[in-house]
């Protein structure tokens, strides 16, 4: 798999190739090697911030409401695109990028537990909910025994999909306090007689031609051209599943991190999101005002 940088210059890196020492040094210097490198005092030279994203709306959110504020503080932003969240988190931990924006709290904990890493979330971001979509059916009433339903194959997002299917009455699942342990075996009743088809999350939009329905994460649905209003059912998203900006623990209090957090929590960012109908239906973080 590979990632791309977008900015004034486009550069392609393969994660299967060894990064040369020169590139590694450049990535480190562009990351959080020393907090003083990001002290954007008046007259300080522009500092490049490399921020990672996977397909979805988060880079656009950043460009619309965060980057303009960072530019005023002397930063230059480089957008680095990844195919998967695993690659993005690896790049944060290695110091190749300063932060990524693509994951919720439950996924992050699971990643840290599996990999022995110390990544932390610093601020939540507007997040589209997971939804149940179909290109073959116009309503949920068309379900019948043998209906094929695609769901994410990772436990954390599988649980979210199963809860949607349970809420619409197609299945019943047993309570499981630990989302990372959820499997298809947690389905204890299947009155609709559906066939559950586990797939990698990013593949779900393309699978719509092969299955009857697909539970698609909001970012992948939007990236594939689907609107939240196209979903036949949406999840009731709770705070642990709102996505967030993630950095390495040692950089939690770095100047650049705090500047990113302040930009997200600002009135300017709220105006940029609320003024664009594209974000209608997104789950907004608690710091958004009620106005």
Question: How would you explain this protein's 3D organization?
Answer:
With 291 residues, the chain is of the alpha/beta class. It folds into 2 domains: 2-127 and 241-279, 3-Layer(aba) Sandwich (D-Maltodextrin-Binding Protein, domain 2); 131-236, Periplasmic binding protein-like II (D-Maltodextrin-Binding Protein, domain 2, 3-Layer(aba) Sandwich), CATH 3.40.190.10. Helix content is 30%, strand content 23%. The protein has a 7-stranded mixed β-sheet, sandwiched between helices. A hairpin with a 4-residue loop joins strand 1 (2-6) and strand 2. Helix 2 crosses helix 8 (255-264) and helix 2 packs antiparallel against helix 9 (267-274). It is globular and about 60 Å long.
- Run of helices and strands: EEHEHEHEHEEEHEEEHEHEEHH
Strand order of the largest sheet: 2-1-4-3-5-14-6
The total of helices stands at 9
Structure classification = alpha/beta
Inertia-based shape:
globular
Please identify which CATH superfamily of the largest domain we are dealing with.
Periplasmic binding protein-like II
CATH class of the largest domain reads Alpha Beta
How big a fraction of the residues is strand?
15-25%
Q: Mean pLDDT score, rounded?
A: 85
> What would you say the CATH architecture of the largest domain is?
3-Layer(aba) Sandwich
Helix content: 25-40%
Largest sheet: 7 strands, mixed
Q: Report the span from N to C terminus.
A: 43 Å
Features:
globular; alpha/beta; 9 helices; D-Maltodextrin-Binding Protein, domain 2; 2 domains; 23% strand
Topology readout:
Elements: E1 2-6, E2 11-14, H1 21-30, E3 47-53, H2 58-72, E4 75-82, H3 85-94, E5 99-104, H4 105-115, E6 119-124, E7 131-133, E8 148-152, H5 155-167, E9 172-173, E10 187-189, E11 195-199, H6 204-207, E12 213-216, H7 218-223, E13 233-234, E14 243-248, H8 255-264, H9 267-274
Parallel strand pairs: 3-4, 3-5, 8-11, 8-12
Antiparallel strand pairs: 1-2, 1-4, 5-14, 6-14, 7-12, 7-13, 9-10
Helix pairs in contact: 2-8, 2-9
């Amino acid at each position: 798999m590979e990632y791309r940088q977008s900015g004034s210059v486009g550069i392609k890196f393969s994660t299967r190739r060894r990064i040369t020492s020169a590139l590694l040094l450049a990535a480190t210097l562009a990351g959080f090697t020393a907090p003083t490198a990001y002290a954007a005092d008046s007259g300080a030279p522009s500092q490049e911030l490399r921020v990672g994203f996977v397909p979805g709306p988060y880079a656009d959110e950043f460009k619309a409401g965060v980057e303009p504020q960072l530019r005023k503080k002397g930063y230059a932003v480089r957008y680095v695109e990844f195919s998967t969240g695993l690659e993005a988190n690896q790049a944060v931990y290695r110091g190749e990028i300063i932060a990524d924006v693509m994951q919720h709290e439950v996924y992050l904990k699971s990643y840290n537990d599996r990999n022995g890493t110390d990544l932390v979330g610093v601020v939540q971001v507007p997040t589209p909910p997971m939804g149940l979509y179909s290109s073959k059916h116009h309503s949920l009433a068309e379900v019948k025994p043998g209906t094929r339903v695609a769901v994410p194959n990772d436990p954390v997002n599988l649980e979210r999909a199963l809860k949607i299917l349970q809420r619409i009455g197609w299945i019943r699942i047993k309570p499981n306090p630990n989302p990372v342990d959820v499997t298809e075996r947690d389905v204890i009743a299947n009155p609709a007689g559906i066939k559950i088809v586990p797939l990698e999350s990013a593949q779900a939009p393309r699978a719509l031609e092969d299955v009857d329905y697909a539970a698609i994460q909001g970012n992948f649905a939007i990236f594939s051209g689907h609107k939240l209003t196209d979903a036949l059912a949406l999840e009731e998203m709770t705070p642990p599943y709102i996505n967030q900006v993630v950095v390495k623990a040692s950089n939690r209090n770095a100047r650049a991190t705090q500047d990113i957090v302040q930009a997200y929590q600002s009135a300017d960012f709220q105006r940029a999101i609320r003024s664009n109908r594209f974000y209608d239906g997104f789950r907004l973080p608690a710091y958004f005002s009620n106005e």
